[in-house]
Amino acid sequence: MTRQIAVAAAVLVVAVVGGIWVASMLGGSDDRFAQCREGQVAGGVDIGGPFELVNSMGETVTDKDVLTAPSLIYFGYTFCPDVCPLDVARNAEAIDLLEERGQMVTPVFISVDPKRDTPEVVGDFAYNLHERMIGLTGSPEQVKAASQAYKTYYKAHDAEGDEFYLVDHSTFTYLVLPEHGFVEYFKRGDTPEDMADRIGCFLENM
């Protein structure tokens, strides 16, 4: 079963990246951010969109409340033993590099494990990784809708009575700009320096 889930996740990732590549080829030359892209993303790709989630204070918020500035969005879960802490810490380091250059970007962490990730838990996790990071969770339905909007994958191995279950999930980080929406994604192999340089290019061309 685990092998089947892994294969399904791989197929989904290939499909998303393939769709992004096709869209970039059809995007034309009117892309104001073309010189900034390495992820082969063009404007108009159907990634991102409205969401309704719950913040660390227990307040229901929407994408319009949260994404008021350039933002880096990552979907993960706080009980993740390895991948999420490394990815989110990498994102936080990129945020700090940008801030040193006078460019402000908001880090956002969206939980795909609403059963365990209460508003308080996700808020503490986000704050401990970066003091400006926004932690979001929600009902299973709210989390599913946000995940679908960003074309992410997740699957909980929630065996009955196992409080230490794992959650398979995709690991892209998404750059979202006010008035432009989703503009770029970053993979696990991207370094904080690479991310800061590429994000900086987008901010300079807003």
List keywords for this structure.
206 residues, alpha/beta, Glutaredoxin, five-stranded mixed sheet, two-stranded antiparallel sheet, 39% helix, disordered N terminus
Instruction: Report mean pLDDT, rounded to a whole number.
Output: 87
Strand order of the largest sheet: 5-4-3-8-9
Helix share bin: 25-40%
State which percent range the strand residues make up. Answer: 15-25%
Number of helices: 6
User: How many structural units, i.e. domains?
Assistant: 1
Biggest pleated sheet = 5 strands, mixed
State the total count of DSSP E strands.
Answer: 9
Give me the secondary-structure category. alpha/beta
The CATH superfamily label reads: Glutaredoxin
Q: How far from one another are the termini? A: 45 Å
Shape: globular
The CATH architecture is 3-Layer(aba) Sandwich
Level-1 CATH class name? Alpha Beta
**SSE order:** HEEHEHEHEHEEEEH
Q: From the alpha carbons, calculate the radius of gyration and give it in angstroms.
A: 16 Å
Low-confidence stretches: 1-11, 13-29
User: What is the fold-level CATH name, i.e. the topology?
Assistant: Glutaredoxin
Describe the structure.
By secondary structure, the protein is of the alpha/beta class. The protein has a single domain (2-204), classed as 3-Layer(aba) Sandwich (Glutaredoxin), CATH 3.40.30. The chain has 6 helices and 9 strands. It has helices spanning 2-26, 63-66, 83-100, 119-129, 140-149, 192-204; strands at 52-54, 60-62, 71-76, 106-111, 134-136, 154-156, 167-169, 173-177, 181-186. The chain has a 5-stranded mixed beta sheet with strand order 5-4-3-8-9. It has a two-stranded antiparallel sheet with strand order 1-2. Strands 6-7 form a two-stranded antiparallel sheet. The chain is globular and about 50 Å long. The chain starts with a helix and ends with a helix. The relative contact order is 0.19. Mean pLDDT is 87; it is low at 1-11 and 13-29.
